[in-house]
Specification:
With about 130 residues, the chain is mostly helical. Helices cover about 45% and strands about 0% of the residues.
Length: about 130
């Protein structure tokens, strides 16, 4: 039986820590009943996982995606957005209401400069001893 070492797998997964994570995840999958892609040869699950990575019977990218998916608490699902009905703007709503009612509602528009000037002209209320 040939020994599987980190050096056999390091050219497939460059980061040793990532290799440990991937091999550990694959070993847990095997212990939960996942099909192995190589002959077991009386090896334990971590050794089988390392041999699968070394023999490239499993893609490290696929293992990484599966590991990330297994650690996620909330999985976002990309759903197409439903077509929402158009909301009429204020001018078309005012013109539609003007046809039905005699009163026309108009809104004052204020620029940012006018708003700031109005705020600066406000006087703070006088403090009283009642509070």
């Amino acid at each position: 039986m040939a020994r599987v070492t980190v050096e056999d797998c390091i050219d497939k997964v460059e980061n040793r820590f990532e290799l440990v994570l991937l091999a550990g995840h694959r070993a847990r999958q095997i212990s939960q009943g996942a099909q192995i892609t190589i002959d077991r040869d009386n090896d334990k699950n971590p050794v089988v996982a390392l041999r699968e990575i070394a023999d490239e019977t499993l893609s490290p990218g696929d293992l990484k995606e599966d590991l990330i998916h297994s650690l996620q608490k909330h999985v976002e699902v990309d759903e197409p957005e439903a077509d929402l009905p158009e909301i009429p703007d204020a001018t078309s709503a005012a013109s539609a209401d003007a046809d039905s009612d005699d009163e026309v509602v108009t809104f004052d528009r204020m620029t940012e400069e006018d708003l700031l000037a109005g705020i600066e002209n406000l006087v703070a209320p006088e403090k009283s001893d009642d509070f």
